[in-house]
């Protein structure tokens, strides 16, 4: 095995937030601020960590809004992609969250996980093709800020998903698009994910190997949702 991967794997498809960078924490904070304000107006209990994991984590932004609001039986009009952040629509709420996230990133910056940087460098040196596959529309900005863009040969992100009409995770569409962009069949690619929806997508796409990265004390859940192996940090695979 090379880098903890089975023989025959020639490409790595990395999720971004929570796998390569610590920005999953920033996403969580932006979602909480967004939903807590909305829920307070309706006398509803606050947005919880469990809500984040079950309904939002790993999904495209507007899908996350729909899933969470449905769980609380809150009904909002769909709206349009260009709705202003203050609009009480599904798209307005999603855009509000994205505006908050961009503010947090600008104020606090982006930190890659050292073990992930080492792993990506090792993958490049081993001749493996590398793509980032994320539901975030801010991937380009995050990759530049974390100095990881230099290692990435292809990127499928929230912008790509909307533009190409792809289904979001847990559907495998975005990972399959990443493999196509690298010219690699799914069985030759490994998926690296920290979200339950993400490992489900990797398994649904019949990829050659699925690595679950446990940043939220959910190792058993990652395994039961489709991860072949679960690690706390990618450095464990070196």
Largest sheet: 6 strands, parallel
Averaging pLDDT over every residue, what do you get? 95
User: And the CATH topology of the largest domain?
Assistant: Rossmann fold
Amount of helix: 40-55%
Count of beta strands: 6
Instruction: Indicate the proportion of strand residues.
Output: 5-15%
**Strand arrangement, major sheet:** 3-2-1-4-5-6
Find the CATH superfamily of the largest domain. HAD superfamily/HAD-like
Structural class: alpha/beta
How many whole angstroms does the radius of gyration measure? Answer: 17 Å
- The best one-word shape is globular
C-alpha termini separation: 11 Å
Question: From the coordinates shown, what is the CATH architecture of the largest domain?
Answer: 3-Layer(aba) Sandwich
CATH class of the largest domain: Alpha Beta
Please count the helical segments: 10
- As for the number of domains, it is 2
* Poorly predicted regions: none
Order of helices and strands: EHHHHHEHEHHEHEHE
Provide keyphrases for this structure:
238 residues; alpha/beta; Rossmann fold; DNA polymerase, domain 1; six-stranded parallel β-sheet; 10 helices; 6 strands; 45% helix; 11% strand
């Amino acid at each position: 095995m090379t880098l903890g991967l089975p023989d025959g794997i020639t490409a790595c498809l990395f999720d971004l937030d929570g796998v390569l960078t610590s920005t999953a924490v920033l996403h969580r904070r932006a979602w909480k601020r967004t939903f807590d304000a909305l829920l307070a107006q309706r006398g509803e209990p606050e947005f919880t960590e469990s809500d984040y994991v079950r309904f939002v984590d790993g999904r495209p932004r507007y899908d996350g809004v729909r899933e969470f609001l449905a769980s609380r039986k809150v009904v909002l009009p769909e709206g349009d992609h260009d709705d202003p952040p203050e609009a009480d629509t599904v798209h307005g709420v999603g855009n509000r969250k994205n505006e908050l996230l961009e503010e947090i990133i600008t104020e606090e910056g982006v930190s890659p996980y050292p073990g992930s940087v080492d792993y990506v460098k090792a993958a490049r040196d081993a001749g493996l093709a590398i793509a980032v596959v994320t539901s975030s529309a801010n991937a380009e900005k995050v990759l530049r800020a974390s100095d990881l863009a230099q290692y990435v040969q292809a990127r499928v992100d929230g912008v790509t998903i909307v533009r190409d009409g792809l289904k979001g995770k847990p559907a495998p569409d975005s990972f399959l698009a990443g493999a196509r962009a690298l010219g690699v069949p799914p069985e030759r690619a490994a998926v690296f994910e920290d979200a339950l929806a993400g490992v489900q997508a990797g398994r649904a796409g019949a990829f050659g190997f699925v690595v679950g990265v446990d940043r939220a004390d959910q190792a058993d859940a990652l395994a039961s949702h489709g991860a072949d192996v679960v690690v706390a940090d990618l450095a464990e695979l070196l």
